[in-house]
Amino acid sequence: MRHLRWSAHVYLMLCLLGTGVVWAQQDASHSGAAQASTTVTTAVVASRGNPVLPPMWAFGVLYGSYHDQAQVLSDMKQLRENHNGVLYWIDSSWLSGSYNKEPARYICFQFDPQQFPDATVMISTLRQNHFHFGVWEWPWVDQDCPLYKEGSSKHLFVEDATGHVANGKGWHGNKFTGVFDFTNPETVSWWQTLNQPLTDVGLNFFKLDTGGVYPKDGVLKDSSNSQDRYKTLYRKIPYEFSASANGGRGLVLTHTQHSTDADQYPGMWTGDSHATFDGLVAEMRIASSLNTPDTTAFWCGDTGGYNGVPDDELYIRWLEYTTFTPCQEFFGSKPTLTGSRFPWQFSKQAQDIFKSYTQLRYRLLPFSYSNAQIQYHVKPVQYQVRWIGSNQLVSGNGDSQILVQPITTAGSTTASVSFPVGSKWIDYWIGKIYQGGTSSTVPAPIDREPIFIRAGSIIPLGPVMQWVDQLPLDPLTLDIYPEGKTSYTLYEDDGVSTQYVSGAFSTTKFTSENSNKHEVVAIGASSGNYKGKPPERTYVLHIHQQGSSPAKVMRDGAGMKKLSSQGAFDAASDGWFFDAVAHILWVKFHISTSTATTVSL
């Protein structure tokens, strides 16, 4: 087959998915994709200086593997029945089951027909079960791939000073590869043509390997001869293609090499870490160097480590940490026994903890996504996740913050925590208060990562979900830790389009004022609009640090009904309940989002 002189279109029609589906020849300009890309580019220009938003689903739980079609569908079934998730990508083995023994298949844009007898059905099934889908790619084409001759003859690869293809090399047995010259508009159109059949059947994410550089002896088509420019384009072009498939916003995962304006094309992963506690520490060190204009605000690492096989303890501690990173993904190397990091590959205890923390991640979606919007809208930029050194991270800014102390030593059941100055910090698990500017040794049993809430925080929480958008954010719970007068502004938009750039979003301001042992919570009228904005919703107030039951609870001057138990509260549509054991006051009511209201104790 390698000696046949087929065009890219014919080759794709016959082999791309191995399904017998006949693809119609695509025009290289792809007017629809080009229009969507133009929209995204406009958004990027408008937002220069602050990182743009990926689709809301990027804040869910993401998975990758080297599994074949049968295993992928089995993984999907188990995740939907017992766990959760929103993205599944297949790494480099989608091209070849032999992995390093068929270099001509890297990268020839076709699924290995032995592993994936009907990739179209597989992708469709994943999408029907609310998983987004992606594949691994690199910017090289092996000389034995039929596509190489077309790229070479049309001068679409990076060439040297003599006009010959510069060798990109590579791995997986590759010895000579052509490198896509993304500074050449004809190359960009060709690359889009090669990927269009994938997006036509549901692909909307790319994991991009290599450092995104071109051969040192290469001369770029635009004569810039800039590795920085090439790395930027290597991110930008797949990102915009992903955006066209997503309805406006894209998502890629690239290596963490710096390049100009990389934060305009989210996101990155921290590379091939080792499944050891030292590997976890090293991964955190890399992650803590991100959040810059030439890296990304949206990053993740391979939870559990990439190389080697984590034991239960390491897997648990790693997933506890990544619950609070901007993105969370689970992935492991092909040579290991697992080739992935799915929860059922570990103990029952690990599976239970996995479920608990990933559910917490979904509940925190209103907070994390709103903080990501603040990250875009507010100048100077306030990153949704920031680091204190390389061993503590903070989610949120201003009055509402969550401090996380990852456990990075095997066998640890305690942790030494240094608390940031300027506020008190409340243990999320037991409610103990710590003074800012102090250090303390805190309990850290295997199922409890040390998590602390800044006093005064108002943390919006949604319902437990298996995937983003499974349920509306209703009821919306406000987890309130009273301390003086504080506030939090919730940002919301459609989660898909780039219309937030031109003002299609809403804000709702929440305030908590605590004085003379009295608490007043105010919810402002929602300001702004976007497609799908809820006209009304139920609020649940979850007010901590209450020493005794209030005599009464008033909303807008009228007394609310006192309920006798947690069960009665859960069943009611309106009312309040005091938990004397946890010292928490619960308040519930339903209201129009365009109406302000005040609750006082």
Strand-helix topology:
Elements: H1 8-15, H2 31-46, E1 61-65, H3 69-82, E2 87-90, H4 119-128, E3 132-137, E4 140-142, H5 146-153, E5 159-160, E6 177-179, H6 185-200, E7 203-208, E8 218-219, H7 227-246, E9 252-253, E10 268-269, H8 277-287, E11 299-300, E12 302-303, H9 312-322, E13 328-330, H10 348-363, H11 365-377, E14 385-388, E15 392-397, E16 400-404, E17 414-418, E18 424-427, E19 433-435, E20 439-443, E21 451-454, E22 458-461, E23 476-480, E24 485-492, E25 506-515, E26 518-523, E27 527-528, E28 536-543, E29 554-555, E30 558-559, H12 566-571, E31 575-579, E32 584-592, E33 597-600
Parallel strand pairs: 1-2, 1-13, 2-3, 3-7, 7-9, 10-11, 12-13, 23-28
Antiparallel strand pairs: 4-6, 5-8, 14-15, 15-16, 16-21, 17-20, 18-19, 18-21, 22-23, 24-25, 25-26, 25-27, 26-33, 28-32, 29-30, 29-33, 31-32
Helix pairs in contact: 2-7, 3-4, 6-7, 9-10
Task: Spell out the key features of this protein.
33 strands, 601 residues, disordered N terminus, alpha+beta
Choose one word for the global shape.
elongated
Unreliable segments (pLDDT under 50, ≥5 consecutive)?
1-47
Distance between the amino and carboxyl termini? 77 Å
What can be said about the biggest beta sheet? 7 strands, parallel
Radius of gyration: 25 Å
Whole-number mean pLDDT: 91
SS element count, helices? 12
Share of helical residues: 10-25%
